Amino acid sequence: MREALFIKKNKDRWLRIQQDPSTDPDEVAADFIQLVDDLAYAKTFYPSGHVTKFINAQAARIYLDVYSNRKEESNRLIRFWKYDLPLTIRKHHRVILFSFLLFTIFFIIGFFTASQDEGVTREFLGDWYVKHTRDNIKSGNPFGIYEHGNGFLSWLGIMVNNITVSLRMFAVGIVFGLPSMYELAQTGVMLGVFDQMFAANGLGLDFWLVVFVHGTLEITAIILAGAAGIVLGKSYLFPGTIKRVDALKQGAKDGVKIIIGLLPVFALAAFFEGLFTRLYNDIPALTTAITVSSAVFVIWYFIIYPIRLGKRLSLPQIEEA
């Protein structure tokens, strides 16, 4: 049988297994057996063919899923952080890039708008906050706002607030992703306005060194939460080759995975903000190390590792016969 005919004969079944995998154990077993049979045939007649790689990847994925379900709960958690979340991130890297660019564009807009109109700063940050920060700048302690209050209580309050915001950003994405994009844009503008307030007083570099002790993780998580909302809305608007309701379910599932993965990131960012950002004057080496370590973690876990993992466990697409 020619390879093109072999693909045409089995393509629908392969795509169904790839895009809409069964949750019934008997059906999963039957799919796996059929894939193994197909793989044996393909390796015999098309050993270097694209279809052979595709079937092999499909069978390997089912095997890993079945094998992982036999592990203890702790191993399921390890699998989530090691495989499930990074592969979900990789799957939606383009949406995440879009969210990052949207956030960055509105950050720039906020920065330059605030530089032209002081009223914008007060509108976004509030009169009291602006006055208090400017008093701190005059007194030689520009980031003194982070030194007030109980560190532990600040950590809890900030964590709860940020997690609440991220859940809302995801949930409102059901409306075609538009509210999620709006909240991303609004947050970007607010950060730009905040940055400009310090940059106008010659503290632009200090802003990044101090605020991003916690901001590296916090802003990354906000961008990803917005992306999760966009994924939810996009899945319904652009279902691809599957039913719209099934695409929406898959988008919701992927979005929930991202949000769950962000919970410890928000918790750690709040921990840094409540207890460590305030040490920028006393132990600058420590706060700088936290910022650098956070940046390395973000670049590795959310960009480099998902790409490498995706290549290692890639599922090639079937070429048209």
Write out key terms for the chains shown.
single chain; mainly alpha
Shape: elongated
Order of helices and strands: HHHHHHHHHHHH
The share of residues in extended strands comes to under 5%
Number of strands: 0
Mean pLDDT: 87
Description:
The longest helix has 34 residues, at 204-237. The chain has helices spanning 3-19, 25-45, 50-68, 73-91, 93-116, 118-125, 127-138, 151-171, 178-199, 204-237, 244-275, 284-312. It is mainly alpha-helical and 321 residues long. The protein contains 12 helices and no strands. Helix 4 (73-91) crosses helix 12 and helix 6 crosses helix 7 (127-138).
How are the SSEs ordered, and which strands pair?
Elements: H1 3-19, H2 25-45, H3 50-68, H4 73-91, H5 93-116, H6 118-125, H7 127-138, H8 151-171, H9 178-199, H10 204-237, H11 244-275, H12 284-312
Helix pairs in contact: 2-3, 4-11, 4-12, 5-6, 5-9, 5-10, 6-7, 6-9, 8-9, 8-10, 8-11, 9-10, 10-11, 10-12
